[in-house]
Amino acid sequence: MNSDMDPQKIIEDIMSRPAQKIECSRILVPTDGSGQAFKAVQEAISLAKAMEADITFLMAIDLNKNVSAFEQVSLGGYIPSELTGAAYNFLMDMVRLVPREIRVRAKVEVGNPGEVITGVAEEEGADLIVMGSRGFGTFHSLVVGSVSHYVLQCAPCPVLIVKGLPADWEDEDTYRGWPLQA
Question: How far apart are the first and last CA of the chain?
Answer without folding.
Answer: 61
